[in-house]
Amino acid sequence: MTYEETFATISRLADDLARRGFTKLPAERELAERLNVSRSSVRRALAELEDEGIVHRKRGRTGGAYLTAAQSQPDNTFVDEVDPAEGRRVERPLGTVVGVPQMLRSQGFESGTRLLSASYEHPTEEERHYFDIDSDDLIAAIVRIRFADGDSLSLESFRVSATRFPQLLERSLIGSLYELLVEHYGVRPTTADEQIRVVCASPRVAAALAVEVGTPLLKVTRNTYDQFGEPVEMSVDYFRADRTVLHVPAHPGDGQEPGAHRLQHRLEMGHHDTQREVTADA
């Protein structure tokens, strides 16, 4: 990532966080890790943002880059035009199989990844049936956090047959796993069955995503198949509901009016909207 891209990404993050009521950017080291850039680039970008009056930096124990916009009183004259809590959201298409990096790039976000764990595990009974493997075979299990413009987006658990994809965990696991499967194994995920529910963030998931316990999340359980209809993955992703919009393509003939080519489902953050649907199994 060039310095110009780093600056633009942190600038977008500052604007998005301020709109959602946050008062401070993540620490320099955290931003550098999320964006996969040097701390000197982050420090330079923060200095430029301070010169522009977007942040002001403090030293010491409570130091950091504080957002000036979040501390000013908003003009509520036209409150219906802009929702201050409605930050920029990632559009996640349903009915298509696309990797997170490609999805983010297509929408103008910079993607980032933090690998939490990569291990070989014995399969569950469900996995043995799905992948058609024996109990002595192994599963390659990968857990990662995804970032969009430096802010956490999702926690993903990706599981595939280690027999079908040997030495997978020895490869770079920071980019798109779908692209990796195509490049090294000739397997292209093309279709998927997904179940999506609204859940509350458990302490473990909340800590990974740096959100409060009980924050509404979209739990996406997915089984993916390749170009020949063979099983590829079993995964569970937790997307932040305050950062994600689901888009469902609808076409004439499947119950929609002829002009209804795109149906947008937006999950709002109000407790009254979600309290009857939220479970606590995240």
Automatic annotation (TrEMBL):
GO molecular function: DNA binding; DNA-binding transcription factor activity
Taxonomic superkingdom: Bacteria
Keywords on record: DNA-binding, Transcription, Transcription regulation
SMART domains for this protein: HTH_GNTR, UTRA
A Pfam family that the UniProt record links to this protein: UTRA
Gene3D superfamilies reported for this sequence: Chorismate lyase-like (3.40.1410.10), Winged helix-like DNA-binding domain superfamily/Winged helix DNA-binding domain (1.10.10.10)
Listed GO biological process terms: negative regulation of DNA-templated transcription
Protein's name according to its UniProt entry: Putative GntR family transcriptional regulator
Top-level taxonomy: Bacteria, Bacillati, Actinomycetota, Actinomycetes, Mycobacteriales
